[in-house]
Amino acid sequence: MSSELQAVLFDMDGTLVDTERLWRQVVEEAASGLGLALTDADLAFVLGRAVEDCAAHLADRTAGRAEAAGLGESLEHRFTELVRRRVVPLPGAVELLSAVHAAGVPTALVSASPRPVVDTVLDALGRHWFTVSVAAGETPRTKPFPDPYRAALTILGAAPTACVAVEDTPTGVASAEAADCAVVAVPSLTSIPPAPRRPVVRSLLDVDLALLRRLAAGL
After folding, report:
1. pTM: predicted TM-score of the whole model, two decimal places
2. For residue 170, what is the enclosing H or E element?
3. How many CA atoms lie within 13 A of 91 on its CB side?
């Protein structure tokens, strides 16, 4: 296993920017309009998932009273609108991006959000922090499958075992680990247990280059 940190791959919603709560708000509003109440059992289909996945889940819960495509369009439009107005970097996000950038380590933004939302966040955070970005719909499958992480790794020309992903949901963690990356988990709305090559921290303020390099080295 290489001891050199070849790249850091960042999730977006709930990891770098405080948008996971906005997404949950949008989904709860849509569910309420359909006469549904979200429960903890729904979260696996909501947090860290693509708009289409969430819309399909809501449509299934209505037993055919709602159509997934229309729900998806409504969810994406409302979420993009809220992100544009209220996107906020999470504590430590800009500092960590700056440290990784200063060290010359390539980065990727790997998101299950659609490209319009990703571009809105890139404009807010600063596109210069990222070598590449991957959004929903740009790979055959999105999270929890490994496709988006593998796509970013291919573009970067990086070995997955020498890279570290930073994620906030079980869905994202599953995606990154299926692509053979080590993961720093920063739980937002759902707890994530620690595991080999997966430390769990309270916030990005607890993440630094030393931790990322230790993970890349398998330590």
Report:
1. 0.81
2. helix 170-178
3. 7
Question: Which position has the token pair 């929903």?
Answer: 136
* Tokens representing residue 211 in the block: 């931790």
DSSP-assigned states of every residue in 14-65? TTTBTTHHHHHHHHHHHHHHTT----GGGGGGTTT--HHHHHHHHHHHTTTS
Q: What is the pLDDT of residue 1?
A: 42
Sites in the chain below the pLDDT cut of 70:
1-3
Which pLDDT score, from 0 to 100, does residue 202 have? 96
Q: Which two tokens stand for residue 55?
A: 């819309």
pLDDT of residue 72: 87
Q: Residue 21 corresponds to which tokens in the numbers above?
A: 């709560």
Contact by Cβ (8 Å): 94, 38: no
